[in-house]
Amino acid sequence: MKIKIEGMTCQHCVMRIQKALQEVPGVLAVQVDLKKGEADIKVQDGVSPQILISAIKNAGYESKIL
Fold this sequence. Notes:
66 residues; Alpha-Beta Plaits; 33% helix; four-stranded antiparallel beta sheet; alpha+beta; 4 strands
């Protein structure tokens, strides 16, 4: 699943988003690309995209499913 993330400016932002997403139950792998402003997330079946959006919002960033 790919998610567009707005507001990332540095590697600290990337690490913060990765940590927030990895804490979501059912997330298997997270790859955040600062240049593209995207996260590529592998999840188990049944993980709602809205939960991922909420985790990113709680970390201080806006996002949407691509």
